[in-house]
């Protein structure tokens, strides 16, 4: 004998569900309300101008706007207000470095951060001449000496750098640079 299909129930689905689980008989209790999850942390502020300058410098280096330095090339630069003989004296190693920073073998990002911090600290303490060891880049995985080109780019764009030049071989040669810093220049 066949049973007749059940009559359709006029109750809505939510009411039927509560009846099925026994909510209407007090067998089920509601979960306590929970607080909203914590908001995602805000991103750290970044220096947009420095990032833009770095990106622009990388693009210029890639497209040849700035000629990349090779392993044996000497670094050399002076501001217009610095007499040419100062650059010649730097090249001869006639200035004594008061502080030294060795970046040799560091990853480029770490080296750049350390270089900027070092120069800022030297300026704060009135240091006039420093030596930065960047290495010659002969063991670089890339074809160009990465740290040497990075140091050249950073130094050229700093207002507190008056002049710089690779010293004689006895003081580091093409693997280092002597830098003259201004006392009150900005950046």
General description of the model:
This protein is of the alpha+beta class and about 190 residues long. It has a domain at about 75-180: Ribosomal Protein S8, Chain: A, domain 1. Helix content is about 30%, strand content about 10%. It has 5 helices and 5 strands, in the order ααβαβαβαββ. A 5-stranded mixed sheet has the order 1-4-5-3-2, with helices on both faces. Strand 2 (about 100), helix 4 and strand 3 (about 130-135) form a beta-alpha-beta unit. The protein is rod-shaped. It starts with 12 loop residues before the first helix and ends in a 6-residue tail after the last strand. The model has no long low-confidence stretch (mean pLDDT about 80). This is SMR domain protein. It holds the Pfam family Smr. One of its GO terms (molecular function) is DNA endonuclease activity. InterPro entries: Smr_dom, Smr_dom_sf.
Main beta sheet: 5 strands, mixed
Q: List how many beta strands DSSP finds.
A: 5
Characterize the overall form: rod-shaped
The helix content is 25-40%
Count of alpha/pi helices: 5
Strand content: 5-15%
Pfam family, one: Smr
Domain Smr: 101-182
Region (Disordered): 23-59
GO molecular function: DNA endonuclease activity
């Amino acid at each position: 004998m066949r049973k007749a299909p059940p009559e359709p129930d006029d109750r809505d689905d939510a009411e039927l569900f509560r009846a099925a689980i026994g909510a209407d008989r007090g067998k089920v209790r509601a979960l306590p309300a929970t607080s909203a999850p914590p908001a995602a942390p805000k991103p750290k502020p970044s220096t947009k101008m420095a990032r833009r300058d770095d990106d622009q410098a990388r693009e210029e280096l890639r497209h040849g706007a700035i000629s990349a330095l090779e392993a044996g090339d000497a670094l050399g630069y002076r501001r217009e207000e610095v007499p040419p003989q100062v650059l010649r004296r730097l090249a001869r190693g006639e200035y004594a470095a008061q502080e030294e920073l060795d970046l040799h073998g560091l990853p480029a990002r770490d080296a750049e951060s350390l270089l900027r911090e070092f120069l800022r600290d030297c300026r704060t303490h009135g240091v006039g001449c420093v030596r930065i060891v960047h290495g010659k880049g002969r063991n670089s995985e890339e074809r160009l000496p990465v740290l040497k080109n990075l140091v050249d780019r950073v130094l050229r764009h700093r207002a507190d750098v008056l002049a710089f030049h690779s010293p004689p071989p006895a003081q580091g040669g093409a693997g280092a640079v002597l830098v003259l810093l201004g006392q009150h220049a900005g950046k």
